[in-house]
Each structure stands twice: as C-alpha cells, then as structure tokens.
Amino acid sequence: MSRVNRPYVGIPSFLRAPIVEDLAAIDADIAVLGVPFDEGSPFLPGSRMGPRALREHSLRFGTSGIYDPETKKSYLVEEMRDRRIVDCGDVDVQPTNVEATFANITADVKAILASGALPVVLGGDHSITYPIFRALDEPVHVLHFDAHSDYADFDDGLRYTNGHAFRHINALPNKLSLTQIGIRSLRSARPMMEDVETDGNRIIPMGEFRVLGPAGIGALLPKESRVYVSIDVDALDMSLVPGCVSAEPNGMSYAELRDSLKAIAENYQVVAFDFVEVNPPLDVGTGVTAYLGAVTVIEFLGHICAQPRWAARRVRA
Fold first, then answer.
1. Residue 232: which of 269, 273, 200 has the closest Cα?
2. Is the distance from CB of 244 to CB of 282 less than 8 angstroms?
3. Distances from the Cα of 275 to the Cαs of 47, 74, 90, 294, in angstroms?
4. pLDDT tens sequence across 96-149
5. What are phi and psi of 207, to 5 degrees?
6. Cα 140 from Cα 136, distance rounded (Å)
7. Packing angle between helix 288-305 and helix 50-58, nearest 10 degrees?
8. Do residues 149 and 189 touch, judged by C-beta distance below 8 A?
9. What single DSSP character describes residue 233?
10. Which of 99, 204, 259, 283 is the most exposed place for a label (fewest CB within 10 A)?
11. Residues 6+ apart with CB under 8 A from 128
12. Helices (H) and strands (E) in the chain, counts
C-alpha cells in the first residue's frame, strides 16, 4: 500500500479529492463543501466538528473506487480516478453572526452550482439546510430524513436554530413539495406537526415508512423528479449514532436508510444533498458515528453516479 493511502497520512480532504480553494475554478462533477457551524443547536454544541470528522473517516476508503461485496459492483471509479470529485474546504463561518454565515453558505453553494458540479454539503447542524436550499435557482422537491420535523414557529426571537430550517424552506418559491421521512420524536410539539401538514407538506413517520419501505420512497414523486435531499444522522436509530445530540429510539436501520437513498438515486434526479448533525465530541473513541456518516454520503454518491443519466453526463463532459 502506498504511504499516502493510509488513513492517518495526508491532508484529510473528502475521499482524498483535490482541494479547490477558488470556487470559480471548479472543474469537477461533484463538489464537497463543509459547513462547520453549530450555533443553531440549542442543547449541546459540537457538530461544528462534523465536516472534519467525516473527511477524516473518508480517508479509510481507497482511491480507486468503492467495491461493494454484496452487489459485486464498484462505484465512483471514474469519479475518483479522473479526479471528478473536489473538496472545496469549509464555508467562512462568522461566529455569532448567523446571517453573515448563512449568506456565505448560500454564496458558496451558488458558486458550486454555477460550475455545473453537484453540491454535497457536510454539516454542521440542521439549520444550514435553509441557506443551502435557497441557493438553488430552480424549483425542486425536498426529501428530508430526520427524527424531527424542524418546523418550529418563529417565536421568542428565535429564527435560525436547527429546529427552524424547514419552516424557512417551506416559504421559498423554489420548493415544489416537502416530504419528511422517519419523523418520530415524542418531543415534537403538536401545533408544529399540524403546521407541517396544514401547509401542504407530508410527514411519513416510522410506522408508515416501514409499510412503504425503500421502494415506496422511490415512488413518492413522479419518475425523474428533481430533488434536494437532506439527511440528519438521527434518522438512524439512536443505538447506531452515539455521536448525535438529538438521537431518538425507533429509528431506521442503516440498510433502511441506505436502500431508501438508493431508491432516490435510481428514480429521481438529485440536484444537491446535505448530511448533518454528527457531533464528534459526543462520539465514542472509534468515531463510529462519523464513520457511519462518511459511509452514508459515499454510498449515496456511488448510487447517484451509477445511474444511466449520470453516465450520460460523464460522456458529455
């Protein structure tokens, strides 16, 4: 094994992708962006360290593609070999100035979109999904995996916590629909949950999710719908994610989340996605939550890039 491929050697860019500091110079199909921000977390801080931990655990994978022993297929081979994935580093976070940080998030995502690359955003807490989503210049459907609806009302002067993101998104003109999958927290306020559905959105709690299954998630929208996907690590059961401050019982298994994301990749066009709420200071010594997060992002990317529509894009490039 080459020394540079060892997981404790080298600069931890995501999947050892080339680092691009000038977002106007992106020449890639996938651009990873970190948002080390957790000022939207009202309970315990720490998810600001999530992007770094996800990058570090991504170094445990090779540089010649991802092989799945179950499917006997390799994924991301061309993307990694041809350096079609880049790491754009982290958004410039302005401590205690949430609106300035959010403006920087939106600007960076817009720059990635202008380059033609797929934005993959690593959080950070879930408040960041709002400034990411408002960067999109086209109407898309939103698929939101979470234990919580994050649809809190704007009261007590609070507007930008990780519990407000999807109320903001609901008011944006580029939201075609919002479907929240895996919602189950007993800490959810009834008026908030009722607001989600009164506003025309859909909640799929865990009982309904298990009836639908991943295939049902892939049939929620018309084929080839353009979607934004937001994944909170607490969509997974709390036994799997010790490094998550908001973990809840009765969540998804890894296979349920993985297969749902695979169904999304197969049936819809993913225009961007985020992965949030890994909290490394709370994680156990091996960093299993960050590792699970890295696996989730990498597998989802692999399935997105395995589709015929992506292969056609690769040929055009």
1. 273
2. yes
3. 11, 23, 14, 9
4. 999 999 999 999 999 999 999 999 999 999 999 999 999 999 999 999 999 999
5. -60, -45
6. 8
7. 70
8. no
9. G
10. 99
11. 35, 37, 40, 102, 105, 121, 165, 274, 276
12. 10, 10
* Token reading at 70: 């179950």
Burial of 43 (0-12, 13-18, 19+ CB in 10 A): exposed
Evaluated on CA atoms 22, 165, 214, 218, the torsion sign reads negative
Which residues is 272 bridged to in the sheet?
228
What is residue 300's three-state secondary structure? helix
Q: How far is CA 72 from CA 178, 269, 302, in A?
A: 35, 24, 13
**Range list of H helices, the chain:** 50-58, 77-81, 98-115, 129-133, 165-170, 190-198, 206-217, 254-267, 288-305, 308-316
Q: Which of 244, 184, 241 is nearest to 210 (CA)?
A: 184
Read off the pLDDT of residues 31-84 as tens digits, 9 standing for 90 and up.
999 999 999 998 999 999 999 999 999 999 988 899 999 999 999 999 999 999
Distant-in-sequence, close-in-space partners of 92: CB < 8 Å, separation ≥ 6: 101, 104
What phi and psi values does residue 100 have, to the nearest 5 degrees? -65, -40
Q: Which amino acid is at 162?
A: N
DSSP-derived secondary structure letter, 155: -
140 phi and psi, to 5 degrees? -140, 160
